[in-house]
Pyridoxal phosphate homeostasis protein (Sphingobium amiense), 243 residues
Amino acid sequence: MTTDTHIAADRLAAVREGVDRAARLTQRQGDDIRLIAISKTHAAPAIRPLIAAGQHVFGENRVQEAQDKWPALREEQPGIELHLVGQLQSNKAADAVTLFDAIHSLDRPSLLTALAKAMDRADRRIPCFIQVNIGAEEQKGGCPIAETPALIAAARDADIPLLGLMCVPPADVEPAPFFALLAKMAREEGLPRLSMGMSSDYETAVMLGATDIRVGSALFGDRPPPARPVPGSGRGMARNSLA
Ligand SMILES: *Cc1c(COP(=O)(O)O)cnc(C)c1O
């Protein structure tokens, strides 16, 4: 093993241990929780060691960046599963449908229409999570809580396979109440999966029912510091400012 692979294997083992610990506390199995390695901003040489360490599920937050990086990596390593976790513009829906195996950011009726059309054209159904704006933050993506049941019903009508709900809670406050609320919403809608929890809070998320955790920096190391938020850019949150 190369040094890079050792580092990647150590980080992966540490996250897996955290997942197992949190799962055990709530009488679940760590193996039942899907760890999505968020590789945004990291180029192929940083990603390969994690693949070599055994990680096969990855997530990106931009369609273009994923298109640039993943076709080649997938040729090197068959069996990669790629998730889109960032906001999706309707005009990129067709690209997203060909590139990704799951989409975590379905959050509005116009995108639902675009995705349904793209899936029909490609004859490929991509399972989706509905992203909920769980902290009711103005600048943030995600469907308003009150509008979520209608969006879920519309997705079901349009034959979009729904996995569950996803959220990114507000930065710098205790995330547990937001995770608990998302779990309650999913339960009420009969949706089985919960995409919640990032590097700083995945153990809390697992204890509150996360089935899919999205972990970047704990696996790859820190990303370059974010540029200062641009007012009106729609990126209101430091944690998400590279999204
Ligand atoms: C970047 C990102 C993550 C991972 O964040 P880390 O704090 O690096 O673990 C998870 N979810 C979304 C939507 C992201 O944009």
Q: What stands out?
A: The radius of gyration is 17 Å.
